[in-house]
Records
---
Amino acid sequence: MVGEKKIYILLTDTGTAFTRLIKSYTKKPYNHASISFDADLKEVYSFGRKTPKNPFIGGFVREDMQSALFRQADCAIYSLTVTEEDLQMMNRFIQLIAANKDYYRYNLIGLLGVMVKKPIKRKNAFFCSQFVASVLKESNAINFDKDVCLVQPNDLLGSADFELVYEGRLRDYQHGDMDERVRASYPVVL
């Protein structure tokens, strides 16, 4: 339809010690969430580690899908059709945070709130799925049945009619090495 655009939610398992720790609690295959406005995943945003070797130094990041952190990652990529207006509101929200990224930090304490099912709201702090949920909520096109401070990566998918685009090794998606059968099953509209 005219005026409709796609956004992409990227769920990943990077296999790091921090991810394995989170995975031991969630029992889910993917424990990191990011958002992109392009099928090529050239601009991917999230809250995560700012330095590759230290998961405790985190904040707003524009993720590099070619980095060592994502090189061996497994992933699931989902698309959602939104209006042009929704897309612009989401993009403005992200650009405002990007312009002030030095004032934002990773909400590590908020992860404890998820574990005890009590929202822990901190000014200018997000964990990955809290950030993605906040971006989605910003457009008012998507509502969650829980506080965004409690949204886990897999919860994002239940919030709207997301469509699976690809599941497998992220590097295979990035380099266009998908098997033709998979490509035909999950066409990516560029």
Note: The two ends are 15 Å apart (CA to CA).
---
Amino acid sequence: MQRETRIANFVLGALAALSLLLLSLPLSTPVRSFKAGAGYLLDPLAYHGEAGYRRLAGAPDRIRRLLEADIENESLQAELRRGQWLATTVSALSLENERLRRELALKAPAGRSPAWAHVMERDPIHWYRSLVVDVGSDRGVELNDPVLGPHEGQLVAVGRVVDVRPNTSTVLLLTDELSAAAAYLSSGTLEGLIQGQDGPRLRMNYLNAEALLSEGDAVYTSPTSATFPPNVLIGRVARVNARDPFLTFQSVEVAPAADASSLQELMILRSRPLAGEESR
């Protein structure tokens, strides 16, 4: 312990002696160079701006040029980083603008007043059950309003409104196990019932037991649907289930056209527009 104390005292004394020596030495070129270099290493920010120029003015020419070059290099690197960030931001905004432009060109089914909404929240545990959007009773949204989403230049069925608040609404997705909708297959216009499985796929039940079913067939909302307008795409048949001899119908698995994980904007089909929107 005493040995460490003696070493610490010796180092402190040596540094103090060196400081006094430097202070007492005349401001010769080597001393000024050492002071400028040491000061820049210890506190480089002090050499930026107007005060930094005054500090550099007293340094030897070669040291001053070296320090100025380093300061300029840091400034250019910071400018480059800002430029890269701006380029990334512009690119992201351009993509967002193009996506929104395509969505605004989509037309709502006749007889309905559309209200676009942004997805605010997803349940991380129950991904395929519901979404919260930023449109509510303030925009005329009501319970059981059908909800559509954009997919490859068209609107597809997503779900229905099950909870309405002043500025937000909860959308129950078709993939939720509590969801069901009347639907038909494009091949032979076979009617059935689309039901959620609380997963990435839907199940279509009650199809004619004698019908020939094929993967890839499109599934649309039926004119008999109590929620959705007719002929809205729901998805495509992903698998034809094996026939159960104890059932009088067939079933298929359906891959939804709208992926719950990629939904960002939704169109809520209101039964009537708010006052003042009719003239727009």
Note: The chain has two domains: 2-78, 113-270.
---
Amino acid sequence: MTAPAMSSFPLYQQIARKLRASIEAGTLPAGAKMPSVRTLGKDHGVSILTALQALRLLEQEHLVEARPKSGFYVAPQRDTLPAEARPIELAPLEDQAQTHLSIVGTPCRVRLDLANGEAALYPVAKLGILMRQLIYRDPTLLGNHVRGTGHPPLKQQIVRRAFDYGCELSPQELVITHGCIESLALALRAVTRPGDGVAVESPTYFVILQMLRSLGLRAVEISASERGMDLAQLKLALKAGQLRAVISIANINNPTGITLSPEDKSRLVALAERYDVALIEDDIYGDTHFDPVRPRPLRALSDKVILCSSFSKTLAPGIRVGWVAGGRWSSAIASMKYSSTMGTAIYPQAAIAEFLRTGGYDAHLRKLRHTLHKQMTRMRDAIIRHFPAGTVASNPSGGYVLWIRLPAGSLSSRRLFEQARREGIGIAPGYLFAAGGQFDDCIRLNAGFGWNKDVEHAIQTLAGMLGKPWPIRCPAEDW
């Protein structure tokens, strides 16, 4: 795949890329002093702030380190993993976490806690008409026994669409599942055994952590920055022989909304192949991108990637039809599917296949992405206006959710979650998105349920709970 032009990246990332290349090539060896921010600014024709952003990004990647009153220096090569990136046994959830998990997603007055949208976003009426027509023409869609790995016409449509974003899939490797969660679980069961280590981004979708816990797997949490997973940290874990698999949400991560750059996608795939570990990709949000062109999955770079996805985030949350392209593990995945849930209902598969075949899906996606982007922008703007100074808001590349880091001294996400619920406001507390609960100063908010007075007032109410009355306008930083 051709990498995008450098101009498609922010200026500070362009500068960081050049400096990173010099560090990795040894031109800037360990211990070498980095150019000052003034020198970088002058050499690249940018402000001192932009130059500092580039150095800070390299610092987050552990490639450089800041020394007080001296500047930035190339960091020594790490040969041991930081404590947070070591394999950990996922202990049973504490009582409060169990309670909070059971509450997230239950009905409330203002829905800011889920990762999907209101029914009006989806073509449910058209799907209903298709279903009625299909069942009238072919009652066996309901009457026959469910068997096999999926409805062949739906598999054909998935293969056709995947080709458009760079993936060459075969119908034989596809297994249709009960949503993306079953796809991920089947993939994990196919490539791991209890006790194996599995790398995940940190923060990551809390259901993935619960899945690892239920399968008896150990989590290796790899730090994520505004750029995505820390690939240097991942490499150390791979070199230590601690991993059997890596799970990545490379496109529109949940909860951060980050999409890995094409360069980092290539590096991630290369690392997995070099150390012979299974790379499992959750691409459920790929079709909800805000950019002009859909981001390519990791699978577009290698047929060794297990690709998982679903129509739950694009067609209808309640339809629960997902799929997994298992590559060389497809036979094992198909066998496990049969022995667990046997098959996925054909009736909704047939309706989705017909919707895709007639071209309705592409028109729907254009409208969905436009609406989500508009709603996300309005919610993010409201957070910037109303939340206290020091709030850090993500800038998602697609999807439904915003990741918010609360300012120092604010309520913990646990307490904010409980207070918000008493006001009828649903949020997702950040501590659930890591095994160690280290994101208790973060929350995830959902922009998928439209923008109206109730949502705006909910944002203002949350701001008030954080210690600032909502009419005060304080700028939030970009993440």
Note: The radius of gyration is 23 Å.
---
Amino acid sequence: MHEAALYEKLDNKRVKCGVCQRRCVIAKGKRGVCQNRLNSAGKLYLLTYGKPATLQVDSIEKKPLYHFYPGTACFSIGGFGCNFRCPHCCNFWSTWGAPELKDENLAEFKSRPEISPQELIDKVKKSGFPGLAFTYNEPTIWLEYTLDCFKLAKKEGLYTVYVTNGFITPEALKLLKGYLDAFRADIKSMDDGFYQKICGVKSGKGVREVTVLAKDLGMHIECVTNVIPTYNDNPQMFERLARWIKENLGLKTPWHLSRFSPNYNGLRDLPPTPTETLKKAYQIGKDAGLEFVYVC
């Protein structure tokens, strides 16, 4: 186990995690919501340090990042666990969508070989690709491992990427300053009700605030909205979101509109996002003054 970088010790050997905006208060012997942070005898430990679930190569456009090293391929790393509980997650097998860690997930996790930051960066260098991305699950929740990898990556001249839901705390994001190049953020909706129903958190305000902070810290920003029928496909919501991006991130910030597909763990009663809905959202973004709007 690897001791956590950001936590506060409380009474009765409880701890308060400072990595994501849930700020879980965790009793002795228990895990946080993400399931990969354990309170052992009053100290908080990361269970998944050096335990990737997925290693593969993707085009940078798959993230999607269209304005960051376009045409390159990046070494992509996914881990276990998540701080959201989105029922339609396409990576549910590794994000552990259930509130508690299932036996089969735990067995999968324990069987994984450990890969040190140096070993990972050596793999990236050997592959010949110019950068690496932490993706598939939420990278924030194994912050310590990603940060250690990024420190080595920058020494080797590699670019670095977070594909994130944006629920990281400001203090955790600041630890990544100078080491994280691209912050590809999900801006799922402007409505708190969406975040409550789909993600299991009270509000999306903190996501937007941290995305602005990432921009201020010098990170490249691109935003993604997965458009889900009946949940966040209202034209008024598109207008609010496009206006927010323009006013807070800048009119040159790329906005990616992705199609929902009911092929995974939940929301299977919904249809795929109609093409006309995506076209309408695209036009709303352009009419709002955004220069780069993409349907993907």
Note: The chain has a mean pLDDT of 93.
